[in-house]
Amino acid sequence: MDIKKSIQVKKVSWIKRLALISCVLVFVGWQFSRPSSDVKIGRSEISIASVQQNDLPFTISGFGKLVSKNKRLLTAPTVATVEEILVLPGTQVTADTVIMKLRNPDLLLQVNNAQMELIRHNASLRELIVNQKSEYLSYQANLVRINADLAAAELKVEAQTGLASKGIVSALEFKRSKLMEEQLKKQRAIEQQRLSHLETAQQEKIAIQGQFAKQLEANLALKLSLQAGLVIHADIEGVLQSLPVTLGQSVTAGEQLALVASSKTMMAQLQIPQGDAQDIAIGHEAEINTRGALVRGVVYRIDPVITNGSVLIDIDITESLPANARPELKVEGKVEIGVLSNALYVKKPVGVQANSSQKLFALLANKQSAIQRTMKFGRIIGNNIELLSGASAGEQFIVSDTTYFQQKQTMIITD
After folding, report:
1. What is the pLDDT of residue 281?
2. How far apart are CA 376 and CA 8, in angstroms?
3. pTM
């Protein structure tokens, strides 16, 4: 009987211990889970901002780069090999700067052949002109001889006319003289036609050979142009932006060799978040920070395509750029949308998004404590955010990160 009583006493002891432990755990959990109103934080650990109310310039900021309006794409004039590269990307160049040299032995041979063919043709043309002149003179001499014979025949007929009527010259002889005169007149007419036709034919032959000479000259000029094109010049003043070829590389006709961007006429391209871009319109003024100077500009193009949540805005710069400006230079920009009249705003709290409702800690009159309040926010304007409801001018709010204290309704601020 003594053994059974001892076992019952031990069972009761363990049950009491388990019940006690359970109560302690429930109490501790309740203490940690229930809201506390006496959270303390040092003033130096938080950032406080006052609500302001006045006219607020509405600007939209973005990051981007300077882009040249005038670019020159340099391509290979013919099949060639990159023989020498003289300039690397990022270098300032002028129109006469030689960027690279190409080599094409076949083109050199074609130039020599074209030159020799033109020389041979020109020699043949000169020979043709000399031969034609000799032929023309021969025809002209024959016509002169016929004219002389005709003149003699006409004199003979004139002399025999009176003698034939007196019977001194026989009628037969007189008829022979008349016949000779008529034949010489016909022969002269034919020779005159032959000489005229010869002149026309010779001129046509020279014109044909001249056209052929022009074709050979054009072919030679093309070959020489291709040969000169093997020395690649920048063509414009600016910056060598890209050079996608390497030394010894073979290139085909029309293949890209380099891209030169003018540094005289540039614009700014800004990436603007999609949500903000809807407020931007063509004609809005802008300010561009090149980190060397602030310059003014005007929005003149809005890309209709949305890329990775951003819209590309082109800004036409209306002032002179500083000396450090160059294509691809990283810049910041602000597009001036307008002015929000009598706007209520505060410095943008950490983690707050535009057009949202979130809770902030509002300082009480004693400045030593703060309570949570639901706020409705509007647009983000620079470092500030528009307040639509939940606050009034002059009130102060904690704008630093208070995520850790979101379960607390009140906060004690210690100095």
Report:
1. 92
2. 65
3. 0.55
